[in-house]
Fold this sequence. Notes:
alpha+beta, 274 residues
Amino acid sequence: MLKKLFKKVLCCIFYATVISVAFCYMLFRGHGAEKISTKEHYTVQLNKNNSEVDKNIHSSKKTASFIESSHISGKYNKYLEIYNNNKELLILANRNNPLPESYIPDLKYICSGRLEASSKLYDGLVQMLEDAKLQGYSYWIASAYRSAERQQQLVDEDVYAFMTQGMSYDNALEEVYRETMPAGCSEHQTGLALDILCSGNSVMDASQKNEPANKWLRENCYKYGFILRYPEDKSSITGVNFEPWHFRYVGKEAAKFITKNNITLEEFYIVLEQ
Length: 274
Ligand SMILES: [Zn+2]
């Protein structure tokens, strides 16, 4: 009799343990599901409020750890806030994100009428060049706004040059696209990009980096709303080799944020896309 009772008690303990373990497991899974739905909530919100974000971004997901850390540190909302405040200035143009055909930049003459650029960058540019001058630095703006037609012309000229060396059209085009953006994909078409060379060095290559005037620009441009668009260590993300001369206007708020966080415009959108 006592033996039977003892067996029953043991059975009860066993079932109670099994039920407790099962309950804890379900609780744990439930918590995980909640986490996922929070993430989905962000995505839905982003799509609802900023449908054009989706249209503009392509981004591969190779910087997963970077995205993860941004979420963990709770910066996502800051990205969204900056995007919402500066949508037009943050427009993304690259090989995978051609500008809409309807895109029309608001242009203004710069450099005594020699070039045109977006009127949005004018004040920042003037102030930046004035402050640089006080430091003893001067520059030559080699390129600013370029139309899609002009960009196509540059591509065609380079293709022709390769073909005269015996290359087929297809191979020549492939070669040209390694260095030059196709028409519609160049930032210069937004009027928000400038190629700024240092006085005394008119060669548009990595040697610009060694000029003190270029160093000053790279370190201070964000104060005037510009970012170095294609940094040396980010070519795998931007898809463009280091261009110490190519500066992009995104406005002071976004430029400060992007620079302080050491990210590129592509990375900015990768976070927004999450
Ligand atoms: Zn450029």
